[in-house]
Amino acid sequence: MRLLTRLGLAAAFALTTLPAAAQDYPTKPITLIVPFAAGGPTDVISRIIGEHMSRTLGQQIVIENALGAGGTTASTRAKRAAPDGYTLITGHMGTHAASVALYPKLQYDPRTDFEPIGLIAGTPILVLAKKDFPAKDLKEFVAYVKANEAKLNNAHAGVGSVSFTTCLLLNSIMGVKPTTIPFQGTGPSMNALVGGQVDYMCDQIVNAVPQVLGGTIKAYAIATAERNPSLPDVPTTKEAGLPAFEASAWNALFAPKGTPKAVLDKLTDALGKALDDEAVRKRLLDLGSDIPGPDRRGPAALSALVKSEVDKWGKVIKEAGAEVN
Ligand code: MLT
């Protein structure tokens, strides 16, 4: 009887103390790893969402830009972090899908090594060029790139990034192999495009709206089925004569595998609250992103998205005949 009482007490103690850590979570600042340079799309989206989530969670979310290898170095680090909810990562279509096919020795599997917290935003892809690029529309752009591929530079954010993968597809459709110039993110490569040091790039819309509207770069097309309200004058690739180039990216929050469910639930809830907030929505929509509805944003939907995107981009990369590292 006394043994049973003791066992009962031990069980009750375990029930009240173990989940207590998760119940009290968070009790200190949370690090959100952004696997690209400051000022780029992943960074901008993470800061918008992180600010609101900090308020909901009552703890600061500290953004840490960790660079290298198209976002895969930081993703490996996030996979190896303690699964306690204090280290998270913003992954995207590149780091958490395309990189599987681009790096045969990738140190993580986005399908199994992370806990999905939720989808943040869809980010359509634009075909962009420096402002004095000698083409007035997408057809002329394609013709010019084909005729001048040897002297053109295509900027991107490293093998594994969205900009690398989507322009890999575009270049393969155009049948060209220009010189590609890697940056630590499309924040810095956008600066090079504005400065005219590189010729063209495929980038997520959130990085480009102010520059396109300000006329410091050219946008030839958006690679989605519909035009985007933030850039209504930019035609779709279908309208502009290159329907084969269809590409859209996404950004999402992940935690290391094994993070307690109670912690993940709090993070998913905080992300959902941020995505429902009018001011957050306005900032994301003004930058052209697509905000997922409740049915598309939770962990189950994100897990399914990652799996299907690994397959989809795996096929695209294989067909494009990419040289892998
Ligand atoms: C960035 O934040 O710099 C981008 O997401 C990079 C990319 O994947 O193209």
Helices and strands, with pairings:
Elements: H1 2-24, E1 30-34, H2 41-57, E2 61-65, H3 72-80, E3 87-92, H4 94-102, E4 114-130, H5 138-148, E5 153-156, H6 162-174, E6 179-182, H7 186-194, E7 200-204, H8 209-214, E8 217-222, E9 248-256, H9 261-276, H10 278-286, H11 294-297, H12 299-320
Parallel strand pairs: 1-2, 1-3, 5-6
Antiparallel strand pairs: 3-9, 4-7, 4-8, 4-9
Helix pairs in contact: 2-9, 4-12, 6-12
The structure holds D-malate.
Largest sheet: 7 strands, mixed
Average pLDDT rating: 93
3D shape: globular
Count of extended strands:
9
User: For the CA atoms, what is the radius of gyration?
Assistant: 21 Å
Helical proportion, percent range: 40-55%
Determine the strand fraction and express it as a percent band: 15-25%
Which ligands occur here?
D-malate
Oligomeric category: single chain
Distance, first to last CA: 65 Å
Uncertain segments are 1-5, 7-18
Question: Total number of helical segments?
Answer: 12
Along the chain, the helix and strand elements come as: HEHEHEHEHEHEHEHEEHHHH
- Counting helices, strands and paired strands, the structural category is alpha/beta
